[in-house]
Amino acid sequence: MSWTEVKSIATEDPIILVPIGAIEQHGPHLPIHEDSIVADWSANYIATQLKNEIDILVAPALNYGHSPTFRGYAGNLSLAQNTLRLVVGEILDGLVASGFRRIVLIDNNGGNVAPITSASLDARQGHGILVGHLYPWQLGYGLMRDAYDDASAVYGHGAEPEHSAMLAMFPEQVHSDSAVKRPFTQLAGWNPTSYTEAKIGNNSVPGTVFWDFSEISDTGVSGDPTVGTQAMGELWIERVMGFCCDYVREYNKNTQNGACDVRP
Ligand SMILES: [Zn+2]
């Protein structure tokens, strides 16, 4: 698209979806650019589904994110938290300067959420725009729980429902036979239960401690990465993308004609 086309399309006040990912490990069976390709896939899927009812465009993706937890594994290309906050803020600045005011970020990495929240709230104050946010992996945890006998046993990084979703979206990039389930390594006297959590006595809630994930996991995986199926991934697409389309419909309805804009 040329700059003159962008200028003319902006006058129609479309919704812009901005895919944001990360380059970080997801175990030996999944690719390091997984969060990025899924963010981009999701944005394009949503735009295609809604193209006959909503004026909607997908912006070029930001494929790097903030992943400090996984810096102990090869291929971790993580921006600092403040760098990502600035980059996202500057992308929002550029979209506003080009005439766009309705923006939904399709962000697919947990480490990105804090810097993106900060940049989006700054844009609310600085530009008066209402930025939307969708996090497909996180939505999947909430929307797929009843599809498993025991979701808490199989959910995890590089495990369910992410492994299944990847089998449905990018089967050629998944090497399921390399997936291994191994318990966390104990660190000193700590008994890790997830990335930054450990069991504390007989308490029902864990306590937080900030180690690098590589200190407690040699595979980079939590949960059970050996149970993924393409059929479960199809269900993930149906449920998660169904929610995302409903979200964008709601965003479209509520932001028409500058209804949510704050202008100085
Ligand atoms: Zn990830």
Task: Give your account of this protein's structure.
This protein has 264 residues and is α/β, with parallel strands linked by helices. The chain has a domain at 3-154 and 228-258: Rossmann fold (3-Layer(aba) Sandwich). Helices cover 39% and strands 9% of the residues. It contains eight helices and seven strands; from the N terminus they run H-E-H-E-H-E-H-E-H-H-H-E-E-E-H. It has helices spanning 3-10, 34-50, 81-97, 113-127, 136-143, 151-154, 162-169, 230-254; strands at 15-20, 56-58, 102-107, 132-134, 192-194, 197-198, 207-208. The chain has a four-stranded parallel β-sheet, with helices on one face. The protein has a three-stranded antiparallel β-sheet with strand order 5-6-7, with no helix packed on it. Helix 2 (34-50) packs across helix 8 (230-254) and helix 5 crosses helix 8 (230-254). The longest helix is centred in the last third of the chain and has 25 residues, at 230-254. It starts with a helix and ends in a 10-residue tail after the last helix. Zinc ion (ZN) binds at residues 22, 24, 26, 35, 109.
